[in-house]
Each structure stands twice: as C-alpha cells, then as structure tokens.
C-alpha cells in the first residue's frame, strides 16, 4: 500500500466533549489511498514531543482531500494538538498499516468503546447498514452514536452505570444482538478487555471476529519493534503497526 508524508493544513479542530476532539486536515494523497482500519502518524514541528502520535482514520474524503481523526486529551502531545487552528500546519505520515478491516458483503456488527470507536466510523461508511454497538462509562460518552447514524442499520448502546441503553459492558449486549440480528462477522476496537470478551463471545457463537489492536507505535512502519505480539495460533510474532492493526481475533486472544 502507498504511504505519504504530507504537510497537512488544518481545516477544523474542535471539541466534541471537553476531553475528546475532532480534527480535519487537508492531506489529499493520504485521503486518496486510505482504507478502513489504517491510521496516520502526526507530528507538530517545533512542538514539545519528539515521536509521532498514531491516530485511526475516521474518514478520508477523496473529493475534498480531507482526512478526519478523533483524539482524546491524554498528555503533552494531544494538549498541543488542541491548540492548532484552521490554517495551521501538521506533519502527517500515512496511511499506515497493512492489516485493514474486512469490507466484503455480509451482516456486520461494529463494536467499540472510547476512542476505539473512531476507526469504526470509516468502516461503517463502507458497509451496507451495519449493526453498531457503542459502549461507554456514562451517557456523556455515547455521543459517538451521531457519527454512526448516517450509515447504521441499528445502533445499540451500553453504559457501565445504566444512564443510557443497556446497563453493563459491551459484551453484555451481545446475547440480545445475536438473537435479533443474523450477524456474519464482528469488527471490534477498544480497550483490550472489551475486545477479548467480545472475541470470546463471538467465537462461542460461531461468528468470525476481527480486532483492531491499540499499542504504542513509535515508528509506525515496523522498524522499532515496539508493538509486537505473539500469535495465539502459531507463535509467530506480528508487528501491530505494519502487519495490523487489524487481525483475526484468534491470532490475538486464546
């Protein structure tokens, strides 16, 4: 897959909720090649951080040349990102990752929690009315539903405190979803525990599952070996950034 290094121009950078921001930047070469599941590595020249930061691609518009990411404020790098304004420059490398989401026909369940939901939006856009499961700690963290509404056939919501949708974790909604929907495969991204429980429940139900892994990816191209893991099937070592980030769940979870 083709990769580019572009000096992108910020088109939009606004808060969705105080701790989660949406950024749109103009990077036409990356937008043209991006596929669901891939990510970009970004860096603000002259900033306080040395390493690039990886973010899943939320959308890539080939007509406008704009790429969208959603990020959570968690440290110095993202704190600097929120200060960028329309017209500012950002160094962007991408699209990165050889392992992408499956987009073949079928009834698909997209399940995610937190910013893990971000790359699933791009996937939803490429599928035929997928079923979507949005998991959050509270109702305030289920704003993601508005991003999926244009593409989803149905959206289920779980919250840890029961303030919206089904009370419980994402996996607690699966019996209801599997009983009501003829799911062919599950695509999931989010916290490791959530992905593992959904992968195990999917396997028990005889449904294929793919997971988008989240690890610290210093280089983003498979050179530094900082994001490797051992396959549960044959012991082979994979690089999350280069071989993934999307893998068959059986490779990741026993």
Structural class computed from helices and strand pairing? alpha/beta
* Topology as a string of helices (H) and strands (E): EEHEEEEHEEHEHEEHEHEEEHEH
- Residue windows where pLDDT falls under 50 for at least 5 positions: none
The backbone outline, from C-alpha atoms, is globular
Which strand order spans the largest sheet, edge to edge or round the barrel?
A: 4-3-7-1-2-6-5
Q: Report the portion of residues in β strands.
A: 25-35%
Distance, first to last CA: 30 Å
Q: Over all CA atoms, what is the radius of gyration?
A: 18 Å
Number of helices: 8
Mean pLDDT: 94
| Percent helix range | 10-25%
Number of strands: 16
List the helices and strands and how they pair.
Elements: E1 4-17, E2 20-26, H1 28-33, E3 39-43, E4 53-56, E5 59-61, E6 66-72, H2 76-81, E7 89-96, E8 108-113, H3 118-126, E9 131-136, H4 145-148, E10 154-159, E11 166-167, H5 174-180, E12 185-189, H6 192-204, E13 208-212, E14 228-230, E15 237-239, H7 240-243, E16 246-248, H8 249-252
Parallel strand pairs: 8-9, 8-12, 9-10, 10-11, 12-13
Antiparallel strand pairs: 1-2, 1-7, 2-6, 3-4, 3-7, 5-6, 13-16, 14-15
Structural overview:
The protein has 254 residues and is α/β, with parallel strands linked by helices. 21% of the residues lie in helices and 34% in strands. It contains eight helices and 16 strands. It has helices spanning 28-33, 76-81, 118-126, 145-148, 174-180, 192-204, 240-243, 249-252, and strands at residues 4-17, 20-26, 39-43, 53-56, 59-61, 66-72, 89-96, 108-113, 131-136, 154-159, 166-167, 185-189, 208-212, 228-230, 237-239, 246-248. Strands 4-3-7-1-2-6-5 form a seven-stranded antiparallel sheet. The chain has a seven-stranded mixed sheet with strand order 11-10-9-8-12-13-16, with helices on both faces. Strands 14-15 form a two-stranded antiparallel ribbon. α4 links the parallel β9 (131-136) and β10. The model has no long low-confidence stretch (mean pLDDT 94).
